[in-house]
């Protein structure tokens, strides 16, 4: 049984700003064109895709890369809260894994992880659940979250 489609984020006033986040440019799909593409959600400078199917970490990352994105790179607690809010009850892969030596954490874009949040467990890949961020075996099937940063989104000005 699939999950219902995610509701669109609320957008405020005229133009492309969300009145709840005046410091951030928010793009309204109806007023500003779709910066993210169908089935993607725009939030605070990034586009997100929440899968409804299951796959292993590598296949999930390949799906994201095909769409010029990566498994979700999480920059703040606010972003973490957003992901937990919209992902539903299922665990989802995010863009973090151990390096080839299994010693340190590396983001899906190849950059070093700066310990923005705590990861529990000793396994090589990382998933997000409703309580914590767990390291788990990369071959398990989970849903996934892709994102791409605002600089990777091509949109036409009004």
UniProtKB/TrEMBL annotation:
InterPro entries: C-type_lectin-like (IPR001304), C-type_lectin-like/link_sf (IPR016186), C-type_lectin/matrix_domain (IPR050828), CTDL_fold (IPR016187), NKR-like_CTLD (IPR033992). One of its GO terms (molecular function) is carbohydrate binding. It is a single-pass type II membrane protein. GO terms for cellular component: plasma membrane. The keyword Zinc does not apply. Residues 43-147 form the C-type lectin domain. PROSITE patterns: C_TYPE_LECTIN_2. It is found in: Cell membrane. Pfam families: Lectin_C (PF00059). Keywords: Lectin. This is C-type lectin domain-containing protein. It comes from Hymenochirus boettgeri.
